[in-house]
Amino acid sequence: xxxxxxxxxxxxxxxxxxxxxxxxxxxxxxxxxxxxxxxxxxxxxxxxxxxxxxxxxxxxxxxxxxxxxxxxxxxxxxxxxxxxxxxxxxxxxxxxxxxxxxxxxxxxxxxxxxxxxxxxxxxxxxxxxxxxxxxxxxxxxxxxxxxxxxxxxxxxxxxxxxxxxxxxxxxxxxxxxxxxxxxxxxxxxxxxxxxxxxxxxxxxxxxxxxxxxxxxxxxxxxxxxxxxxxxxxxxxxxxxxxxxxxxxxxxxxxxxxxxxxxxxxxxxxxxxxxxxxxxxxxxxxxxxxxxxxxxxxxxxxxxxxxxxxxxxxxxxxxxxxxxxxxxxxxxxxxxxxxxxxxxxxxxxxxxxxxxxxxxxxxxxxxxxxxxxxxxxxxxxxxxxxxxxxxxxxxxxxxxxxxxxxxxxxxxxxxxxxxxxxxxxxxxxx
Length: 429
Hints:
This protein has 429 residues and is an alpha/beta fold. The chain has helices at residues 16-24, 76-88, 107-119, 132-140, 147-152, 154-174, 181-198, 205-214, 246-253, 286-294, 313-323, 362-366, 393-406, and strands at 3-8, 29-32, 41-45, 48-52, 65-68, 73-74, 96-99, 103-104, 202-203, 219-226, 262-268, 271-273, 307-309, 311-312, 327-331, 341-350, 353-355, 368-376, 410-414, 422-424.
């Protein structure tokens, strides 16, 4: 087996960074394929916390090549800060390569993000306001600025002028500050510095990746956000601006779908969501508050409080379908250790009918009420367990029941934040 895609099977924050880091020591290459600095991947190694937004989670493995693909929109200030922080922590970044085709998030994208979100009023999406959506809008409009433009410099200046004519007209009408005069000069000066600093990391990645596959190397694709935030298949419009499903990994680095061997879906043993949008199993009670506090459910990127709910098998089955998942990883099982009983959503009730498929529209989903199956808790510490047999009997039954409901083998179980707190039931590489 040579290639494995890691995707989130809920609404993000499932623990993809931890699992990618764990698997990276078996991989020759780890790749980020879509999204931007709106991603937040937390890795704990020997009690030390590493928070990453753009750099692939495999960076802590010095023998693993880390690629930021063409599908990522790049905030140069953030990625350069991440590189600097990693170096200060003693982590080498010599193994990092960034696609020359990656699009750059520009200062006017932040202004557009704020402006567009504020216009929505009480219908706001809950964007991270990191300029992600407007950067993808320019990409689709064929007026985006890529790293190759920045390195060549003259194309960068020409495309910047074109974009500023358009954006400044919008800002003028909206009464927003314009990017002109000294402000524009400062922007150009900043990007001249970025150009010099980022140049050593930029390369042609499409041939690099495909040649690695041809050589039989092991490739690990690190998804960002969750499948239910996918632009086409998520709870639209409360989604992100990229394709977070497995197919997005292929276009995001330039490989064909026939080159993928396995797709690993990551799911929390319960469920969380950040921002606005539907969340059928959301808990607005003491149990929800406890799970939030025990699981430290606060956003890595924004610090926002995550909404918390019970595990929703309808959501995960749908994610398995649109991703072609072959395996499932269950994270944060240990957060349930203190609960005397645990509920799992097995389907929805909609106007007297049982629904086991994900509704197509938000209007239909709003009419759905979760149908719960109650399972006994185990009321004991699982954080030291390193084999499935070590888990309490009721914890084993819980995992097996989720396996049954989702129709996928649960190949990995995480019982704590550290790299070593993982139970392997089935090898993935």
